[in-house]
Amino acid sequence: MARVVFGERVELAERFAELLQEHGIRRGLIGPRELDRLWERHLLNSAVIAELLPPQSRVVDVGSGAGLPGIPLAIARPDLTLTLLEPMARRVTWLQEVITELALTVEVVRGRAEEGPVRERLADQDVVTARAVAPMERLAKWSLPLLRQDGLLLAMKGESAADELERDAAAIAAAGGGRGEVKSCGVGVLEVPTTVVVVERVAAARTSSGRRRDTRRARKERGR
């Protein structure tokens, strides 16, 4: 199964799994119960969302943590330009160590998606990924501004994905997102396919007055 997903780069995925086994619990990256299901629940579960990513995409993995789904995506899809965004220093250190060990061409940025300097630095992405970061209401507000027009937010969710999408539809629209949809990745490969909420950025975020306003454009205008 791993070779189906990672192809000739499966050895890199195996080494990443070893690193998580060796350091994951001690460094607070994964829980003790996760060791026996690293492949199915974490590596493969993350990598299969690659089927939703267009070729040569610029991708930011928001709240990357242990490197999920970012590292598996970088292994499975070396054509991607990947940035791992993580606010915690110790996790940033871990991500940098993994990238060096696996010789991956991936950038690590310390910060949060909602921070102004981060939005300036990582603007106009094709795709933003997120795994267990926040409810859709907050995730859309934080992540959609990082995307170019028509860019995609891919949020890995659980069984309640459809309910969450319906509940937070108004907040997603206010953040500039279109009508989201729930997709399953890894069908026919994983025993339990990965559930992903897909939201396209269709407009700039709406201000408190109800107007649409692109924050990057607003900053440029103020600087004239």
UniProtKB/TrEMBL annotation:
Single Gene Ontology BP annotation: methylation
Record EC number: 2.1.1.-
SUPFAM superfamilies hit by this protein: S-adenosyl-L-methionine-dependent methyltransferases
GO MF annotation, one: methyltransferase activity
PANTHER family: S-ADENOSYL-L-METHIONINE-DEPENDENT METHYLTRANSFERASES SUPERFAMILY PROTEIN (PTHR31760:SF0)
HAMAP family: 16SrRNA_methyltr_G
NCBIfam families attached to this UniProt entry: rsmG_gidB
Reported function: Specifically methylates the N7 position of a guanine in 16S rRNA.
Family classification: Belongs to the methyltransferase superfamily. RNA methyltransferase RsmG family.
Protein name in UniProt: Ribosomal RNA small subunit methyltransferase G
